Amino acid sequence: MSQPAPPRPRPSRGRAFRAASGSVFRLRAIHPGDVAALQRAFARLTPEQVRQRTFHRMNELTTEAATRFAKVDPAQGVAFVVVDEEGEIRGEARFHFDSNPTSAEFAVITDPALAGQGLGRELMKRLVGEARKRGLRELWGTVLAQNTQMLEFSRRLGASRALVADEPDVVRVRFDLSRRLRRL
Asked: How far is the C-alpha of 158 from the C-alpha of 44, rounded, in Å?
């Protein structure tokens, strides 16, 4: 008689937090079952948000790309999502190790309908905590100079910024994890 298969571990429901509006959200690690929810979240982004995040225009997040984003190799980085009470993804953040073992590139984006509610801050707090736990010294990201919302968000949280040589439209933001960051 064969043994029944062990139950598959359920993805974590995450940590609950209250947004500025009073709505409750959960922050958790992304998991492979998030493919369709990632595609729906992408569809809620404005074309300008997509361009600012990817540096080019995209009309949709393909199933192939969403599958790749939902399966994160922990040796290469991490990804977290903020979900609402229905389980819809309302924000996403990740970091990916670059060639320097003490540094990782980060990215964060939230649903435009929820701007200013604290979702991005919660995601960054989680990224910084995970980066420190892994012994990283910095998180950095490239931001289009026109993306004033992201540049201001990063500044408020304590990031430094510098223009990227030979790319006048690109700014590099850097979180020095050896020091205490503002508002995190």
From this structure: 29
- Identify the bridge partners of residue 167 per DSSP, sorted by sequence position: 164
Domain layout of the chain by residue ranges: 15-176
- The CATH topology of domain 15-176 is Aminopeptidase (3.40.630)
pLDDT one-digit tens code per residue, 3-50: 554 444 445 678 999 999 999 999 999 999 999 999 999 999 887 787
DSSP calls for 132-175: HHTT-SEEEEEEETT-HHHHHHHHHTT-EEEEETTEEEEEEEEE
In contact, 175 and 159? CB cutoff 8 Å: yes
| Model pTM score | 0.87
How far is it, in rounded angstroms, from Cα 4 to Cα 137? 46
List CB contacts of 8: < 8 A, sequence separation 6 or more: none
